[in-house]
């Protein structure tokens, strides 16, 4: 299953705090997925209770405040400052509101979008977290100006962006507005998967009966999901799986890769896509998983093989796509697994004797991830290769599509026009400078450990 265009046939198309607590004597790690931006205070995790807003003694100010309090509940679309988990106020837009159970007429909580941040950080907040003096309904300038000094640092923004690889280029403006309206409020707030509790990032179109559940419990091996912890515990006593269904095609140390056929394991594949959509924005879920193969990367121990991420690819692609959707789960991000999955997709292409490319469109950050991989692979070859080499030869050696080879080298300014034709400029010092800038390649695929034959329709 992959991520793709907006219909309901069922496919995706391509893109921290932790604390320990005791739960029935078992250590449980809670992953605040999607909030790896600002580390908590060194002693305790800040908890927002009642935010006291200093009110000047001016009678005019008191009058304005009373008038604004009279406007409660706040309307959808209102812009206001909201105290975030970093202890600072940030501009938000109210996306939705709902009455609190057993509350008075004005007792609402509000679903807000932090306008400085990615949609993954949208959340429900209490009225006490909002600075009512900053309420703006007709103009945004006051809110934005007041929060100007509270913009994210470059480091905070980078930590958000580095794991945000999905794009929205596949949607036109009207479709994007329709998509955002339909998915504006996360239906599932948290999931439990193995030893992690993970905050979700986006809406996922689970069956209607699950939309009232703030938390879902997944079996980490078969990916069945339940509403209650007791249901999961009963299920785990009966579930025989200790790894994803399908064939193990790679094992190196504690890492394993399993190939799952969407046609043979339809329920697993569909559940995987429900799960993935919680962490991928602007993607349309397809239910026709028969056309896809899924490659599940796992960390293995004596308890079983635990999924850390996956990629999918079409069984037959006329466009030479070797990857449709890619995801590393939040607890396992920033460990090099995304680069490993990209590299693995090209090793499969080499085994097939074909060149490959990721499914388009790519987001800016998705393209950045691939450009990093292409740069490392191509420049490593150019450094070792002493004779002339063509774009086609580089493509054949790496399984990288010729168009991607050319665009990568052009982006590095390594293509020059000489004597009426294009030539690759491979000055060693220039290559070293580019390799240093692109960084390390992360985990490497040991091709000797890959036991796999290309898919053939049976």
UniProtKB/TrEMBL annotation:
GO terms for biological process: DNA repair; regulation of transcription by RNA polymerase II; response to UV-B. Pfam families: MOZ_SAS, Tudor-knot, zf-MYST. It is found in: Nucleus. GO terms for cellular component: chromatin; nucleus. PANTHER family: HISTONE ACETYLTRANSFERASE, HISTONE ACETYLTRANSFERASE KAT7. Keywords: Acetylation, Activator, Acyltransferase, Chromatin regulator, Metal-binding, Nucleus, Transcription, Transcription regulation, Transferase, Zinc, Zinc-finger. The active site is at 359 (proton donor/acceptor). It catalyses: L-lysyl-[protein] + acetyl-CoA = N(6)-acetyl-L-lysyl-[protein] + CoA + H(+). One of its GO terms (molecular function) is transcription coregulator activity. Belongs to the MYST (SAS/MOZ) family. Its main location: nucleus. Residues 183-454 form the MYST-type HAT domain. This is Histone acetyltransferase. It comes from Picea sitchensis (Sitka spruce). Its EC number is 2.3.1.48.
């Amino acid at each position: 299953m992959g991520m793709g265009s907006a219909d309901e046939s069922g496919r995706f198309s391509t893109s921290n705090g932790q604390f320990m607590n005791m739960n029935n004597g078992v250590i449980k790690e809670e992953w605040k997925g999607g909030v790896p931006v600002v580390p908590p205070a060194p002693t305790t995790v800040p908890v927002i209770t009642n935010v006291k807003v200093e009110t000047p003694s001016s009678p005019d100010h008191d009058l304005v405040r009373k008038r604004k309090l009279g406007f409660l509940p706040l309307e959808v679309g209102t812009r206001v400052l909201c105290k975030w988990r970093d202890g600072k106020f940030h501009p938000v837009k109210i996306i939705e509101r709902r009455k609190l159970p057993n509350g008075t007429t004005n007792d609402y909580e509000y679903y807000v979008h932090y306008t400085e941040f990615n949609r993954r950080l949208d959340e429900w907040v209490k009225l006490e977290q909002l600075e009512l003096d900053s309420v703006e309904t007709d103009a945004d300038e006051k809110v934005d100006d007041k929060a100007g000094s509270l913009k994210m640092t470059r480091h905070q923004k980078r930590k958000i962006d580095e794991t945000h690889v999905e794009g929205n280029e596949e949607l036109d403006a009207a479709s994007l507005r329709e998509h955002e309206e339909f998915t504006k409020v996360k239906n599932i707030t948290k999931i439990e998967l193995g030893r992690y509790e993970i905050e979700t990032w986006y809406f996922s179109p689970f069956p209607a009966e699950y939309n009232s559940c703030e938390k879902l419990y997944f079996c980490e091996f078969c990916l069945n999901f339940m509403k209650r912890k007791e249901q999961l515990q009963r299920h785990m006593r009966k579930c025989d799986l200790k790894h994803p269904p399908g064939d193990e095609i790679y094992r190196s140390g504690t890492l394993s890769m399993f190939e799952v056929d969407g046609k043979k394991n339809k329920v697993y594949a569909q559940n995987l896509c429900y799960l993935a959509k919680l962490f991928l924005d602007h993607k349309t879920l397809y239910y026709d998983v028969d056309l896809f193969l899924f490659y599940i990367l796992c960390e293995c121990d004596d308890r079983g093989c635990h999924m850390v991420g996956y990629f999918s690819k079409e069984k037959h692609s006329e466009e030479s796509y070797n990857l449709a959707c890619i995801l590393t789960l939040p607890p396992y991000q920033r460990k090099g697994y995304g680069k490993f999955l990209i590299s693995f997709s090209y090793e499969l292409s080499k085994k097939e004797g074909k060149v490959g490319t990721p499914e388009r469109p790519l987001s800016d950050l998705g393209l950045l991830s691939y450009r990093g991989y292409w740069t490392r692979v191509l420049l490593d070859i150019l450094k070792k290769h002493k004779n002339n080499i063509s774009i086609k030869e580089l493509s054949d050696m790496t399984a990288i599509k010729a168009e991607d080879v050319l665009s990568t080298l052009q982006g590095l300014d390594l293509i020059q026009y000489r004597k009426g034709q294009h030539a690759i400029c491979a000055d060693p010092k220039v290559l070293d400078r580019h390799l240093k800038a692109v960084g390390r390649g992360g985990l490497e695929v040991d091709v000797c450990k890959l036991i796999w034959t290309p898919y053939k329709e049976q």
